[in-house]
Amino acid sequence: MKSLVTALGSSLAAGMLVCSAPAQAFTQPVMFNLLQASGTVQTPLGVDDSLLVDTLVTTEVGALLQQVTFTVASGVSMLEGSAVWQISTATGAGPRLVGVNIDILDAGNNVVLSDTFAGVLAGYAHSTLTGPIGPGTYTLRATGNGVRDSSLDISITMAVPEPSTWALMLGGGLGMCWLAARRRQG
Question: Contact at 8 Å (CB) between 51 and 163?
Answer without folding.
Answer: no
